[in-house]
Specification:
single chain; elongated
């Protein structure tokens, strides 16, 4: 496998695991420090919070890649398979537009914060890097949505639709 394919296949997964491990370790050391050493680490809580922000946006992109986002499937249940595929195509197209808008607007906000030089209180981290999670996360979501749109278009053209897995309790 080429490096580009590996990156495409595992970028979000590896990033999310590493960020989650870091966040968990920071939280563990904060609790250990507070209750065993009777000393609170102010920076660990702040850094764990920023890890969580990045984790949310990267995990949202990963969910798009695996088609695991929560969505209302009532129409898909009652429509014929081909009509449901077209509805999914339109839905993903609208979603792509919204993620593109958020990418642009998020970039403006992150650039503004970065230009002001605002830093976090405990760690001293430039807040522009924290806010960069928004445009980067939405750009990744846009990329994954383009991939999903291509898959949906191929399914509609070929008539070979992905099997619907809907659990009704």
């Amino acid at each position: 496998m080429t490096a580009l394919k590996l990156l495409d296949k595992y970028f979000e997964e590896v990033s999310c695991v590493l960020i989650f491990m870091t966040m968990t370790a920071l939280t563990f050391f904060q609790v250990l420090s507070r209750f065993v050493l009777n000393y609170s680490l102010s920076w660990s809580e702040e850094l764990a919070r920023y890890c969580f922000v990045w984790l949310v946006y990267l995990a949202a992109s990963m969910a798009i890649k695996h088609r695991k986002h929560i969505r209302v499937q009532v129409a898909e249940i009652f429509l014929p398979v081909k009509a449901a595929a077209w509805l999914g195509l339109v839905s993903d197209g609208i979603w792509l537009f919204l993620t593109a808008v958020m990418t642009v607007q998020g970039q403006k906000v992150a650039a503004m914060i970065l230009s002001h030089g605002q830093t976090s209180p405990a760690v001293g981290l430039t807040m522009g890097y924290v806010y960069a999670a928004i445009p980067i996360g939405f750009a990744l979501m846009s990329f994954r949505l383009v991939q999903q749109l291509i898959i949906r278009i191929k399914e509609i053209k070929s008539g070979d639709f992905e099997e619907r897995k809907i659990a009704i309790d």
